[in-house]
Amino acid sequence: MLTHDAALEWISRWDRQQEGYLPDREERFTALIDAVEALGRPDPLVVDLGCGPGSLSARLLDRLPGATVVSVDADPLLLGLGRAAYPRLRFVSADLRTPGWSGSLGLDRPADAAVSTTALHWISAADLPKMYGELATVLRPGGLLLNGDHLETDDATPALARLERTLHEREAERRFAGRRPEDWRQWWDAVTADPAFAELHAARTTAGADHHGSESPLLSQHVEALCDAGFTEVGCLWQRGHDRLLCAVRG
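Structure for Methyltransferase type 11, as requested:
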């Protein structure tokens, strides 16, 4: 049985391994939530796309306790962790690559914002326009997409792209001084070896939820797909190296 306290411990360990790839992760979270708060509603309706175990969703509710956050992911194990750890959140199992995913959200009004961190690069460039197009149907006019991710510019500015990655690597070296936390693979090996996750791991295997490589790593892929989906303004609100917070305004 996965207990509340055990789930919180595993999510804390998840957060540490994520910080190994994202030394400015908390700063990016803060900038993203600042943007949601700047919408001016004490009770925003927010959809967290590719929420994982709910790290961003939980931080949103801590800052904006009047918010309604609908947290969406396709990974049964990560959803199980989130449900055990954060009973105030509503988790939805849906694959963003499958048309019709928005129908499972159960929204009673258009969303004020959709947010995501380090998740949407798993969606292929071919699937991005469809996903963003469907997202536009559930956002209110003027609503925001806020996507924090490693987004590269090698196709447009290769020299700058190399410098961006160098800045990121230097910051990680300073932050961790050669003592990096466990990596993504080590975390997954450890969590799936825990007997408390046997049922969730079996469900994850059946669902084929494992990821292999980045499918849409380029900033231009996301900008083009968002513009095609009817978002009228697209730009970066925050950046450190190639780690960006991309914002798009629904027209």
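The domain at 4-250 is CATH 3.40.50.150 (Rossmann fold).
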